[in-house]
Amino acid sequence: MGVTRQQRRSLIFAAEGYLELGMHQHALATLERLGDPAGWEVTAVYLKGEVLRSLGRHDEALVELKRAADTVPDDIQVRLALGWCYKRTGRIDLAIQTLEEALQVEPGEALLHYNLACYWSLAGNKRRALRYLSDALKIDSNYRDLVDAEHDFDPIRNDPDFTSLVSVVV
User: How far is CA 110 from the centre of its chain?
Assistant: First the structure.
């Protein structure tokens, strides 16, 4: 006998709680109780991707996150997680592509602009990095507080244009 709809919801809720508490193995074990992953709803698939991402198992996370993105292509949270994993697997090109696609859905989302600034900096494209960072700061000036600690900006950190952009008083 399979898992009922109510049991599925309870298991997903429990797995979300375990993830929030940093109990990643418990979250995975709870998700496995859902049965055959082929029949999982997108929430569970995304959640498994997030758990694997939290465990640093980026290649495995990508499988689940791509599956979720195929089901809900306009979900920017899924796209952000995908981009994050692509970056950590050395595929900055795919990280950029994924967030560029998300930007088509949510052009006013500061986090997308900020992460694209990071990724373009790592890709060695100062012009695009500065454009996206400028856009992020226009949308939400609080991102300025993150710049000093963000190592993704190290390739352009000493550039006069970068220094000028992040030193502007708002």
Answer: 13
Decide if 87 contacts 56 (C-beta within 8 A).
no
Specify the residue for token string 């993105």. 69
% helix, strand, coil for the chain, step of 5: 75, 0, 25
CATH superfamily for 1-89 is Tetratricopeptide repeat domain (1.25.40.10)
Delimit the domains of the chain by residue range.
Answer: 1-89, 107-170
Q: Residue 1: which pLDDT band, with cuts at 50, 70 and 90?
A: low
Q: What is the pLDDT of residues 10-37, one digit of tens each?
A: 999 999 999 999 999 999 999 999 988 8
For the chain, the farthest-separated pair of C-alpha atoms sits apart, in whole angstroms, at 65
Mean pLDDT confidence for 124-133? 98
